[in-house]
Amino acid sequence: MAGxxxxxxxxxxxxxxASEYSWTKxxxxxxxxxxxxxxxxxxxxxxxxxxxxxxxxxxxxxxxWIYRASMYKSGEMGELTRSFWNHERNILLHIKSKVTxxxxxYKAQVTNSDARSAQMRELADGLMLHFTADSDYGLDGKLxxxxxxxxxxxxSAVVALWNKFKGPMYMPGIAEGDIEYHxxxxxDLIFNTAVQERGHCQWKIWRRWMNKYDGKCLKRFVGF
Length: 224
Prior knowledge:
Elements: H1 27-48, H2 50-61, H3 63-67, E1 71-74, E2 80-83, H4 87-100, H5 115-133, H6 139-153, E3 157-163, E4 169-171, E5 174-175, E6 178-184, E7 189-191, E8 204-206, H7 215-220
Antiparallel strand pairs: 1-2, 3-6, 4-5, 7-8
Helix pairs in contact: 4-6
């Protein structure tokens, strides 16, 4: 491909046909291609120092949990006993409490003023309140956690994922499915680092940690 450096492993050559895209390949080949994208992302993060920055931010924020309030000797003759203070966590949590103390109030908007639209607006308001406050979804708590993650890493995301195994069973062994929300930090959100603007990114990969020995996980990912 003309104009592309030989060391540029992020862009790669353009596919010759639609069948060569990772998303259209069989499952095994698609996963293999996506794993290459993940490897390239972390290589780029190491090259630019972003990965070290994220790890240092994590260590500074959770220093109290990591060091367990341990004490150490200090001074010229070891006459002082010191401990660790986590001022950064205190400051960031104070900012978080100020930002999230007023909860988000969702309000649906309609384009016309007929009675049916007014009824649908009330339904939409009720649904948004349900997803926000209900413990099964916990969207409000996820948004609060996203604010905290943004304070630590500089950015964060909330993934809305459709889980076909969730919800009541409408047939034996087949659930209705339901939406669920997850917090994602830059350590686990892989995207194309070759684009000049984040809005131009056409794909993202979420690296999700799961217990492979969990019974529900084994049922969902048979063969893996």
